[in-house]
Design goal:
The complex is a heterodimer of chains A (224) and B (138). Chain A has helices at 28-63, 65-73, 77-102, 106-137, 155-188, 198-223, and strands at residues 8-10, 13-15. With 224 residues, chain A is mostly helical. Chain A has a single domain (27-223), classed as Cytochrome c oxidase, subunit III, four-helix bundle (Four Helix Bundle (Hemerythrin (Met), subunit A), Up-down Bundle), CATH 1.20.120. In chain A, β1 and β2 (13-15) form a beta hairpin. Among the domains of chain B are: 19-76; 77-107. Chain B is flat. Classes of the chains: A mainly alpha (224), B mainly alpha (138).
């Protein structure tokens, strides 16, 4: 078994040693497992964070079915669907970046991460266009609601759910883009190798989680 | 593709999927795009609202399964990771089920959001209000 502190030579050059805590010395598989497991535990807390918003959606939709139906029809299907396709495609490029980093192809990983970050930026721009439209219409949460086209009671509650769910999601997109930028810089410095790619993997896992949340938000807000 | 020393340090069951070809990611991506178009199409079919919701959630679950298993490498990952992910979804489903069971079975006497409560004699509350000139106390 190769010592984890040894430097790794790949086709692309000389790579820094992966940082391995001393209690995992000589057992890199256990270290890798622990790092990944920790990330999955964190993702579970993220899932439960979003669960609260999904429960809120379920309760208010049960209370105000007509308002939710009317409000969903006022969201732009085109923009929502475009954003869904953008996020799914960015998940593909992040998965490919992970694949490349794992095989020591840092430059490929760098460009794939850059494309992913750009798609995240595109997602946020489209979200900003949608928010601007909502503010112009007065389609806002709670007592700021002033949207005459929704006649059924409960319109403000739809926009509470809409703004909090998509807002928290957009915050996660921003955090995800920051993480991807951080690993992209490390890719540029050719830091990753077959024995050291956990940062790309974990930043990727975070990005995929952001995608998972949107996979549920898109049909619930825009389609049904 | 993988260097021999990297593969050699891994247990055989763990993480085997990482060494597969990148083509699988494109297959999953095409499947996800197809499912997105499907969920969009299904939502335009005239059906009852409940059917729409059920269909949308069903398709979303398939998409989540694909992303988790292949993009996030849960398929072929350590069992603990599968457990964490599976259990967190189970807990969300449990929370949703019991909250919705509550909301769906509320009736007048249990509904805290109806004001004033219609089945309570309002006269018993009269003495708690400040006297008003228009409606003198009886």
């Amino acid at each position: 078994m190769e010592a984890t502190s040894a430097r790794v030579m790949t086709a692309e050059g000389y790579l820094a040693p992966p940082p391995t805590p001393h209690h995992y010395e000589g057992n890199p598989a256990a270290h890798k497992h622990a790092v990944r497991f920790g990330m999955w535990l964190f993702l579970a807390t993220e899932i439960l964070l979003f669960a609260g918003l999904f429960v809120g959606y379920a309760v208010f939709r049960t209370d105000f079915p007509e308002a939710f139906d009317q409000a969903a029809r006022h969201l732009s299907l085109f923009l929502g669907t475009t954003n869904t396709l953008l996020l799914l495609t960015s998940s593909l490029t992040v998965a490919l970046a992970h694949h490349n980093a794992e095989h020591g192809k840092n430059r490929n990983a760098f460009w794939l991460l850059l494309v992913s970050i750009a798609m995240g930026g595109g997602f946020l721009c489209i979200k900003a266009i949608e928010y601007t439209e909502k503010f112009r219409e007065g389609a806002l949460p709670g007592r700021f609601f002033a949207f005459s086209e929704i006649t059924a009671p409960g319109g403000p509650m739809f926009y509470v759910v809409y703004f909090f769910a998509t807002g928290l999601h957009a915050l996660h997109v921003i955090v995800g883009m920051s993480l991807l930028t951080w690993v992209a810089i490390r890719c540029w410095h050719k830091e990753f190798s077959p024995t050291h790619y956990a940062p790309v993997e974990n930043a990727g896992l975070y990005w995929h989680l952001v995608d998972l949340v949107w996979i549920f938000l898109y049909p619930l807000l825009y389609l049904v | 593709m993988a260097t021999p020393h990297a593969a050699g340090t891994e247990p055989a069951h763990s993480h085997a999927t990482h060494h597969a070809s990148a083509a699988r990611y494109f297959v999953v991506w095409i499947a996800l795009l197809t499912l997105t178009v499907t969920t969009f199409g299904v939502s335009r079919i005239p059906m009852s609202g409940h059917m729409h919701l059920a269909a949308a959630i069903f398709i979303a679950c398939i998409k989540v399964f694909l992303v988790a298993c292949f993009f996030m490498h849960l398929w072929g990952s350590e069992g603990t990771n599968k457990l964490v992910f599976g259990v967190s979804f189970f807990f969300v489903a449990t929370l949703l089920f019991f909250v919705l069971a509550d909301v769906a079975t509320r009736f007048t006497l249990t509904n805290s959001r109806i004001r004033p409560l219609p089945d309570i004699d309002q006269s018993i509350l009269q003495h708690q209000r400040p006297p008003s000139p228009e409606a003198p106390a009886k």
